[in-house]
Amino acid sequence: MEMAMTTVAMLACMQVKHFVADYVLQPAWILRGKGDFRMIGGYVHAGVHALGTIPALTMAGVGLERGAILVLAEFVVHYLIDHVKAALSHHSRADATTRAFWAMHGADQLMHQLTYAVLIFAALA
User: Fold this and answer.
1) Which residues of the chain fall below pLDDT 70?
2) Which domain holds residue 18?
3) Cα–Cα distance between 46 and 21 in angstroms, integer?
4) 19, 22, 63, 110 - which has most CB atoms within 10 Å?
């Protein structure tokens, strides 16, 4: 029962972190910087997500070395998912009125959620 409670608590923590980082803490300069490796916005955004993962890892009692690896993994994976979505959105000229936009947005969110499942598994394994 304790493992289940920890898993649910970690997932809830990751969900709150995701909402805050993706929908509250994204000014226009971060949004503009996601599709370009030369712009800082995407890196800052991925960094916010990575740092926001620390409380969930702390709940699981993850050690410093393993935690640092998982936080770095979160940073890299989050950055790449957002970069691909931004590049595809730009090339397809999709906007919020198109099915393509919402399919890409949904795929982006799904990939982030699957990343959290893997991070939680790795933290608890």
Assistant:
1) none
2) 2-124
3) 9
4) 22
